Amino acid sequence: MNGSLFLPSEAYALERDAADGLAHFRSEFYLPQKGIYLDGNSLGVMSVRAEQAVADVMDDWKRHGIDGWTEGERPWFYQAERLAEWMAPLVGAAADEVIVSGSTTVNLHQLAATFYQPVGKRTKILADELTFPSDLYALQSQLRLRGYDPDEHLVLVKSRDGRFLDEADIISSMTEEIALIVLPTVLYRSGQLLDIPLLTAEAHKRGIPIGFDGCHSVGVIPHRFQEWDVDFAYWCSYKYLNGGPGSVAALYVNRRHLGRMPGLAGWFGSDKEKQFDLGPVFTPASTAGAYQIGTPHILSMAPLLGALPMFAEAGIEAIREKSLQLTAYLMALLEAELAGYGFVIGNPREDERRGGHVSLEHPEAARICKALKANGVIPDFRAPHVIRLAPVPLYTSFHDVWSAVRRLKQIMEERSYEQFENRRGVIA
Ligand SMILES: *Cc1c(COP(=O)(O)O)cnc(C)c1O
């Protein structure tokens, strides 16, 4: 490195891009013309391959009609299983332990309906107060369906600082009253990555099944669910996996549990050989496919046929490595360039505890986000004061990170955020 390449310089950013082995993927995505997209942890951007895959599936429908279920290169009857083959390596599972199906929240319902088996004193579900609210709503309703009062039976681990969870606090809440544990892999606001193998081992020592919501990690952080013996997991495909708005989610069930009756049965969970016998009794598949309910959302899965192979080509380990470099670079620039403007970095600094985004806190966060958008930087706001910035390894460059910080600095220097109201929009 020569002397002009000090960290805050544009030349340094360009140098990092030149040395980046994943840089070539960027041209496969539709990115805003002059903008910088840092919201891939809410909705990943479209790729040329995803677009083509949708066109291909539409073409199959056009050409094959009903026979599209079994004909053509991508028979719909096997599409969920086929996508599971691409998904499984991202979470360290075998293909038959994964199925692409449902939505995140529906999959949690399915898994809670299966794995929440209250007996005797063990009637409570353990979750945490920082988790995504939809998960809590689902767990509350599962408790109500079994006749339990969620106020008493949903135990929420508290955060000491409103940002992070302490694994020791989670473990000490694993009492003999707990029948099921559901936690996020990465907290959606602060980006804290929990110690999944530790929590799983501690839950199992106490005989408690444990599952994880992987929405904020799958596609940016490798997992080894099978090796860690995680009981189940579920995640969406529209964030880091770039499947498009409402694309079909996925779930994992450890092979120890395959073959048991899913809590919510439907004909698409059938053993494929038996499904079209159309008999009155459900015969579940011997794979995670058993957890499907109705007809797969073929069109909402289609983008994944294009998007997922990119992860196999890039390699999830290389993706994680670049993600850590991007977030480390972003934090270093924020500290170098924006000291004195009242920002606090609210995500973990350590690589092994940090997810895929930087969580920047500021009392004026809502209107700073509006000013960023007006200046072509697309962030993500989480009330009351968090700006999430996700540089995504497959399409964000180091130069993007550099430009975003430069634009933010200008907004703060000129106080241009003051033209906006400090309130969130309908979607934030
Ligand atoms: C995005 C997200 C969800 C969304 O659930 P959907 O059913 O896809 O709407 C759930 N949980 C977490 C942690 C998320 O980040």
UniProtKB/TrEMBL annotation:
InterPro entries: Kynureninase, PyrdxlP-dep_Trfase, PyrdxlP-dep_Trfase_major, PyrdxlP-dep_Trfase_small
Domain of life: Bacteria
Pfam families for this protein: KYNU_C
Top-level EC class as recorded in UniProt: hydrolase
Cofactor field: pyridoxal 5'-phosphate
Similarity field: Belongs to the kynureninase family.
Record's subunit section: Homodimer.
Function recorded in the entry: Catalyzes the cleavage of L-kynurenine (L-Kyn) and L-3-hydroxykynurenine (L-3OHKyn) into anthranilic acid (AA) and 3-hydroxyanthranilic acid (3-OHAA), respectively.
Protein name per Swiss-Prot or TrEMBL: Kynureninase
Lineage: Bacteria, Bacillati, Bacillota, Bacilli, Bacillales
